[in-house]
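Example (one chain per record):
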Amino acid sequence: MRLLENGYTVKDLGLENINGLASLHKSAFARGWEAHDFAQFVQDRHMKLLGAFKNGGRDPSAFLLVRQVEDEAEVISIAVGRSHRRRGLGVGLLDAAIDDLSESGVKELHLEVDGQNDAAVELYKNMGFEVVGERRAYYPGGHGKAAANALMMCLHLDDY
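Predicted structure:
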């Protein structure tokens, strides 16, 4: 467990958190995951789920899901509840994960992000992630919008 400067606590998540995770994911993404999806993640030895909680709250205000295989890891999903955004939770969760991953020998952390999600792209770049590739028209457009490109990014943990 880790206390962030803003009063939130970061801790590992388990089966007791799957309903809150599903609700949070559905509020953040057009195609949200179900509780049974999170149950599978929690039980997968390659996955790590971290959550940020406000003042001992029962459900996470934000979460980060990472898959580690040998000396590489990938951010599978990160979500911050709408009323908890702009409070440093994304950075706090990523910092906690990077510390854990570094201790377990991970050299690179990868992720992909919607290229039109300016706030997320800026956050990752400010943390030292570099764009290493792009998938054109990867995210489907909605409501008359064109499909968005996915940016593939990487952070070399030795440089962090």
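Caption: The chain has a mean pLDDT of 92.
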